[in-house]
Specification:
The protein is of the alpha+beta class and 182 residues long. It has four helices and nine strands. Bound molecules: adenosine-2'-monophosphate.
Length: 182
C-alpha cells in the first residue's frame, strides 16, 4: 500500500540555499538530502491503491491561484522539549492556509480524516533517532534564527509517495497539480 502525503516541492535554488545550512556544528543526525526537501501540507499515510486514485482525482479539482512562499527562521520539534527534528520555517500566510485547507477539503470529500493538530508549515532539515539532550542544538538554532530566502512563487503542489528504506525515505511524485495564475 502506498504511503502518501501532499506537499509543495521547492525550486532548486531554494534547496541550494537550505542545503547551505548543513554544518558539522550539530550533533550527528540524519540531514535531509536535496530530494527530501519539501513542505508537507497533509500527511495521508498508508492508502489502498484504489483510494489513492480517488485522492489524485480530487486534488485535480483544487482551483487556486499561485502565491508567494516565504521561507525563513529555523526551529525544532517538539517546540518545548528535547528536539527530534530541526526545521526551516515557512510563513503561514493566508494563501498558504487557503491551499492547505482546499487540499484538505478535497481529500476529506474522499474519506480522509484530517489531523486535528494546528498546521505548522516547515521544511524538515534534520532528524535525530533519539531526542537530543537539552541545549545541544540551541547554539545552532540561535545562530540561524535570521536565516531567510527570497520568496518564490508556488505554481504547483504534488501528491507524494514515501517509501521507507534503511538509508532514509525515498519520495516519488504520484501526481502534480497546477495552481492557476489569475
Ligand atoms: P516531517 O518532515 O515534519 O517529519 C513524509 O513523511 C512527510 O509527511 C514528512 O514531511 C513529514 O513531516 C510529514 N508527516 C506529517 N505527519 C506525519 C506522520 N504522522 N508520520 C510521518 N510523516 C508525517
Amino acid at each position: 500500500m502506498p504511503r502518501l502525503f501532499v506537499a509543495i516541492d521547492l525550486p532548486e535554488e531554494t534547496k541550494d540555499q537550505i542545503l547551505g545550512l548543513r554544518e558539522d556544528d550539530l550533533p550527528p543526525g540524519r540531514w535531509a538530502g536535496r530530494e527530501a526537501l519539501h513542505l508537507t501540507l497533509h500527511f495521508i499515510g498508508e492508502t489502498p491503491e484504489k483510494q489513492a486514485r480517488r485522492y489524485m482525482q480530487a486534488l485535480q479539482r483544487v482551483d487556486l491561484p499561485d502565491f508567494a512562499l516565504q521561507i525563513g527562521g529555523v526551529g525544532q520539534f517538539p517546540v518545548d522539549d528535547r528536539p527530534r527534528v530541526i526545521w526551516v520555517g515557512v510563513r503561514n500566510t493566508s494563501a498558504l492556509r487557503a491551499l492547505h485547507e482546499a487540499a484538505g477539503r478535497a481529500l476529506q470529500n474522499q474519506g480522509f480524516r484530517q489531523e486535528q493538530r494546528r498546521f505548522h508549515p516547515h521544511i524538515t532539515l534534520m532528524r535525530f533517532k533519539k531526542p537530543l539532550r537539552r541545549g545541544l542544538a540551541s547554539r545552532w538554532l540561535q545562530a540561524h534564527l535570521d536565516f531567510h530566502i527570497e520568496s518564490f512563487s508556488v505554481r504547483e503542489f504534488a501528491l507524494y509517495e514515501s517509501q521507507l528504506r534503511p538509508g532514509g525515505a525515498v519520495y516519488t511524485k504520484r501526481g502534480v497539480y497546477a495552481l492557476a495564475t489569475p
